[in-house]
Every structure is written in C-alpha cells, then in structure tokens.
Amino acid sequence: MTRIQQGAFSLSPDLTDAQIKKQIEYCSKNKFAIAIEYTDDPHPRNCYWEMWGLPLFDLPDASAILYELNEARKAYPNQYIKLNAFNSTRGVESTALSFIVQRPAFEPGFYLNRQEGKGRNIIYTIQSYAVQSATEGSRY
Amino acid sequence: MSDASERSRIKSERYESGVIPYKKMGYWDPDYTIKESDVLCLFRLTPQPGVDPVEAAAAVAGESSTATWTVVWTDLLTACDVYRAKAYFVEEVPNSSTEFFAFIAYDCDLFEEGSISNLTASIIGNVFGFKAVKALRLEDMRLPFAYLKTFIGPAAGVIVERERLDVFGRPLLGATVKPKLGLSGKNYGRVVYEGLKGGLDFLKDDENINSQPFMRWRERYLYVMEGINRAAAKTGAVKGSYLNVTAATMEDMYERAEFARELGSVIIMIDLVIGYTAIQSMCIWGRKNDTIVHLHRAGHSTYTRQKSHGINFRVICKWMRMSGVDHIHAGTVVGKLEGDPKAVKGFYDTLLLTKLKEDRTTGIYFDMDWASLRKCLPVASGGIHCGQMHQLTELLGEDVVLQFGGGTIGHPDGIQAGATANRVALESMILAKNEGRNYIKEGPQILKEASKECRPLQTALDLWKSITFEYASTDTMDYEATPTRSAS
User: Fold this and answer.
1) CB-CB contact of B428 with A10 (8 Å)
2) Which end of chain A is more exposed for a tag (fewer CB within 10 A), N or C?
3) What confidence category does residue B467 fall into, taking pLDDT thresholds of 50, 70 and 90?
4) What rounded mean pLDDT belongs to chain B?
C-alpha cells in the first residue's frame, strides 16, 4: 500500500486538528496567506489541485481556517486535501509551507509505465491507478 | 650631442624611470571617495618583517590592477588614474600584531562583464605570490549592483527549485551514494531507489564519481533513472539524483549533461575543480535545459581553510552565486568537516539573503545588494546524522539540503530505514519549531517522541547518539571565535 510522500509532514503520523491548528497559527504569525486545495489526482507532477475558494488572506484566527478545512472535508471526504501557505515577501513570493491534511482511506498509488526507447533508454510514465480506473470525481 | 632618445626623457618626478614605492605611484589614497560602481576588496595582509603595511597594501592594489615593478611611460597614454586600484584603508587585525586588513577599491571598468575568470585573474591573479607580503587572504568582496547585473545568477535557486520539486517549508533531504567508489551501475541504482523510497528528495553522486573502470557514466545514469522513477511511482513525489557530469573536457561534460536531460533528470552536478569558465558554461547549459545545477566544492579547502593565506569561502560563495549554480556545499557546523558556526552562518547569509549588511561577527565586511540574483541553496553534507536534527535546524534553517550519506546508508536496517529515520526526525523538528516549542533545548526529547512511532528512527538514535566531531576550527572569526559545536 502506498502512502504518498508529498508535503512537509507526510512520513509522520497524520496530523491531528490540534496540530494543524498550531501550524496555521505559525503561518498567521508570519503573515502567510493560507489556501486549501483538494484533488483525486495526486500525480507528482499535478501542481494544480482544485482550489477550495481563494487563498484566505488576512484571516484573524486559526479556527476560521479550520472551519473551512472541515467544510472541504465534508464535501470531499475521500480525496486528498492540503494546506498551502503563501509568503508574499520580496525574494520569496512563493509557497512557504505545504502539507497534507486529509488522505483517502485507501491510496492505490501509481503505475510506472516503461516504454523501450533507443538503445537502452527507457521512457518512463507515471500513472495513477485511481485515475485510470474511474472518471474525475469518482475515483475513491 | 646626446642621441634623440635621451633628449626626450620624461622629466616629471612621478614618471622618472626606476622603482618608486607603490604608495607614491597612486595606489594608496586614504581620502578616496568610494563610488557605488566600484568593486571593493578586503585582504588580510601579512607583510614581510620590516615592510610598512600601507606600502604592502598599495603594492597589492598595484599588482592586482595596473602596476608592474617599475615605472612605465606608457601609463601616460591612458587615463591611468582611473585604472589604478586604490588601497584606501588599512587597520590592524584584532589580536594580531603581524596581520592587517587592507581595503582596496577597483573601478568597475577593470573587469569584463559577466566573467568570473576575468574578475579573478585580476583580483587573485598575481598578488598572492608577491614577495613583499608573507601571506595574503582575500576575505570579502563588495560586487557593485551594476556589475552583478551582468551575471545570470542561479536559474532556479531556492524558490524555483522548491516549486519544481513541490517541497515547501522544510529542508530538502539527500544522501550521497556510498561507498564512493567501486559500485557497479546496477548496485548503485539500488541505493538510489532505496533511499528515495524511504523519504529522501535526492540521492547524489560523490565528487569523484565520474566515469571510472568499475562504472562508466552511461551505465550509472541509466540505472539511477530507473531508481528515481521507481521511487517516484512508489511515493507519488518528485525525486531526483545529482548526476555528476564532471569530465576531462567541455565536450565530454556537454555530452553527459545532454544524456542526463534526455533521460529526464531534474538535476546535474559539477565539481568546483572544473574551473570558473566551465562552471559558468554549465550553468548556462542548465538554464537552457531546465536542469538544476548542483556544485560540489571539491578542492576548496586547499585555499579556503588556512586563516592567513588564500581565499575565504564566503568569496567563493559570491562568485558561485554570480556564476549561476543552484546548489553549493557550504558547511554543516556539526559534521566531520571544517566549519566555525559564525563563519558558516556568514556563508549561508551570503547565499540566501537578497541584501547583505556588514556584520563582522559573521565575516560580512560590506553592505551589498544582490541585484535580484536568485538565492543559491546551501548544501550541508559530511558526517551529520539524525540525532543532530535540532542543532541542524537551529544553525542552518529551512533553506538547505541536508545530506546524510553514512547517516542513511549506514543504518543497521538498511537504506530505506535510514532514509525514513532522517525524514521523520526532520519532520518532527520542523513541526516542533513551527509550534513554537523550544526545539533547541527539547531536541533530544522531540526526537525520542517521534521515534516511538518510527522504529527506524529509534534504531538510528541508539546507534549514533554519541557520535561527535569536537575539534577547534582552523578558520575562525576575528571578532568572535567559537569552537566547532557538535552533538552531545
């Protein structure tokens, strides 16, 4: 069974809501805007997960973000959900922290397709078992 | 009647043929007003006994710009004062009666745009063998904004590399394949696969893995790519391994780099010993081919380590950020290799900040604006292990690649277990740091808690808990000396 390794804390046990809240507070303290994103296609090159609304800029407290996260969990109980924190400081202007906050109960993982190329060169393609077996939105 | 050549001799005192002190030739100017466009250098100078330090400073300025040992009339055909470097300030080094700091200003037009080779041929070309100085060290440089804009800087650097790898908010994790030499291509790829599967972002070739009889480069690249792709499919994460393209000629390096790209490698690697021109060429290649360029600082200790003579590593950091490498090895503090904590902080700041502020306690002697050249990612490698994670987090921060070679592959339960131990140790420390815990003090406790859920970490902590490298640093700071810290 697979456990995908994306995000900052994916080899640790799944974070509890109390732990998530502390990370959100860390982000707020550093003035990072937080975005909630979800997907049923966690391909390593899929850099555009669906956005749960716009990033939450200038939010007063962590519980408002946790509320949004729980709404997203209710809507997509069997998809991947992650929190992204954005740092708009000059010289960064990118994501400052990103970690998974929900995984599907079963992660089927990926199939590695090998196409024999010229000489001994192999052209590799990574495909998600879940994506292959069902249409978008009904994969888990 | 004298002949015509004697009649036309120059009569000005300054241009009388013969030898006059450098400081009287225009290479010493204590009233000099520094221009924003000047290149500034700080040298640590040990004059020969009896030599006036100001004269020695003027001699360094002279020999690294226009002067030769004697007066030449052809100077008068040029706007020679512009081209003369000016020593403008000399001071005693704290706690030393034989060493002096000499500040020298160079006009920007002395240097070719975008060429580290030209810059260094002037600044470190001849003067280091100059008889009048017993020893000489280039401590720091201020590169002006205008000159920096003629360099490409890192194509990816910290920010873009993180976006490509999809890793944010924690240090990247790597390991060097060990043993350094002797593995066949197939066995080598196994180490790559196991390490990446266990949770590392990168494996890497060592500096001296090129194309030896036991494993030719194509064999290595093909098996490493199999390991990377297997691991990416297994973990759903972007993975890489630095493919060292260092070779005898540029043609060979380009051939190896092209093959690496053709196979889909996200990163290539070069060694510092290939030289400044080759480094700049490979960085341009990397930029054109969407490939991150990792630089191993092989050979640097031959000239950076001794305090009285050579080049301080912070200057190499500046040249390499200008050249455009995305990664550079910059020290671990706690590991097996030289590294005073304050000095290493200075290297990391030099690589990562957008503007430098003078801070003599970390060896930064000039204010310098990096002119939007991207941040170069420091790499910490050499004798570090997961039991030091709290110290590494404190000393090196988040923007670093932590490379545990022996600390991954030497794990009693195998490479995957070693990788997982490091990754879990790192995650636990970043979680604790973000939570606002006093992770420096509670570090060992945090690791112990994490190891309850992670058997490989528990094993690693038990094995390496007492490994330290407690030696005093050779290259210490002048304004605050501290011994190398290590795990306790």
Assistant:
1) no
2) N
3) low
4) 92
Nearest Cα residue in chain A from B427: A9
Q: Which residues of B361-395 are buried (b: 16+ CB within 10 A; e: fewer)?
A: ebbbbeebebbebbbbbbbbbbbbbbbbbbbbbbb
Q: Model-level pTM?
A: 0.94
Amino acid at B469: F
CA dihedral B408, B410, B413, B418 (to 10 degrees): -10
Q: Tell me if B236 and A6 make a contact (CB, 8 A cut-off).
A: yes
Answer yes or no: same fold for B27-148 and B157-462.
no
Domain boundaries, chain B: 27-148, 157-462
Q: Does B264 touch chain A (CB under 8 A)?
A: yes
pLDDT confidence of residue B351: 98
Q: Are A10 and B423 in contact (CB under 8 A)?
A: no
pLDDT at B487 over 60: no
Burial label for B438, CB within 10 Å (0-12, 13-18, 19+), is exposed
Residue B166 with chain A: CB contacts under 8 Å:
6, 44, 47, 98
Which has the closest alpha carbon to B174: B296, B302, B19, B291? B296
Give per-residue pLDDT as tens, B188-246. 999 999 999 999 999 999 999 999 999 999 999 999 999 999 999 999 999 999 999 99
Task: Go through the domains of chain A in sequence order and give each one's CATH number.
Answer: 17-108 (3.30.190.10)
Note whether A8 contacts B262, CB cutoff 8 Å: no
Backbone phi, then psi, for B311, in 5-degree steps?
-130, 130
The reply to whether B216 touches chain A by the CB within 8 Å rule is no
Q: Give the mean model confidence (pLDDT) for residues B323-349.
A: 89
Q: What is the ipTM of this complex?
A: 0.95
- Half-sphere exposure for B37 (CA within 13 Å, toward CB): 11
Q: Are strands B377-381 and B327-329 parallel, antiparallel or unpaired?
A: parallel
- What one-letter code names the amino acid at B365? Y
pLDDT at B241: 98
B252 phi/psi in degrees, rounded to 5: -65, -40
Per residue in B271-323, pLDDT (tens digit) is: 999 999 999 999 999 999 999 999 999 999 999 999 999 999 999 999 999 99
Catalytic residue status for B178: yes
Q: How much is the average pLDDT of A3-17?
A: 96
| CATH code 3.10.129.10 for B27-148 | no
| CATH number among 3.40.366.10, 3.30.43.10, 3.20.20.110, 3.60.20.10, domain B157-462 | 3.20.20.110
Q: Which of A10, A44, A95 sits opposite B232 (nearest CB)?
A: A44
- Biggest distance spanned by C-alpha atoms of chain A: 59
